């Protein structure tokens, strides 16, 4: 009975939103950007940090660029973000390391609860600054154009709020894709997924465009 209760609690932990340091403000000394940061658990006492930075002064119901930064433990095979908080019908950012242990970012879209396919309406620029690794974690920092807005199956436009909370989701697998050097590789089914509310109001940067231009130039 006790074992049944324990496994039930563990399953509940890993299948729902679990965050620590929810919506903390992180001032990145490497890039100079201010991020809104959330830490999401994919196993007991082990999690991924997801950070978002956006321009200041963005109007609601408009498209805008975003910088995504993730700090990922080395035992993660791949980790993905759903920008609208569910797997189907919104931009998915899937990341893993290639055979040289360098980050690969893959833009995906899923028409349902099926294997996500390549998605051309979101483009990523991986920054050299803010992308690094050590003995326990790896980190990527990238600009995304097309992650904060998209078109639904009915032709309607969807936008993430730049001034409040947006429901986001993540998925994780301990296994790398079958062809890790290719951003269009097939990916294994995820082991764990979860959700959180990400506060974009704390992610605003007055000098966003200038900082992004500097980062994109590699300076």
From TrEMBL:
CDD domains: CDH_like_cytochrome. Coiled coil: none annotated. Residues 26-209 form the Cellobiose dehydrogenase-like cytochrome domain. Residues 1-20 form the signal peptide. The keyword Signal applies. It holds the Pfam family CDH-cyt. The keyword tRNA processing does not apply. It comes from the Eukaryota. InterPro entries: Cellobiose_DH-like_cyt. Keywords: Signal. This is Cellobiose dehydrogenase-like cytochrome domain-containing protein. It comes from Apiosordaria backusii.
């Amino acid at each position: 009975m006790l074992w049944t209760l324990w496994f039930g609690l563990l399953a509940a932990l890993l299948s729902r939103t679990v965050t620590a340091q929810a919506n903390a403000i992180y001032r990145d000394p490497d890039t100079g950007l201010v991020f809104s940061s959330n830490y999401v658990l994919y196993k007991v006492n082990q999690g991924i940090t997801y950070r978002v930075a956006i321009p200041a002064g963005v109007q609601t119901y408009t498209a805008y660029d975003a910088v995504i930064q993730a700090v990922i433990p080395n035992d993660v095979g791949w980790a993905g973000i759903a920008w609208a908080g569910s797997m189907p019908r919104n931009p998915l950012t899937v990341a893993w390391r290639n055979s040289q242990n360098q980050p690969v970012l893959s833009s995906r879209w899923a028409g349902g609860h099926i294997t996500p396919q390549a998605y051309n309406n979101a483009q990523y620029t991986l920054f050299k600054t803010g992308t690094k690794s050590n003995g326990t974690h790896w980190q990527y920092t990238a600009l995304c154009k097309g992650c904060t807005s998209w078109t639904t199956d009915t032709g309607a436009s969807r936008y993430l709020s730049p001034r409040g909370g947006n429901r986001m989701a993540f998925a994780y697998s301990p296994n790398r894709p079958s062809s890790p050097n290719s951003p269009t590789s097939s990916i294994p089914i995820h082991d764990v997924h979860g959700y959180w509310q990400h506060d974009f109001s704390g992610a605003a940067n007055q000098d966003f465009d200038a900082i992004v231009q500097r980062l994109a130039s590699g300076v």
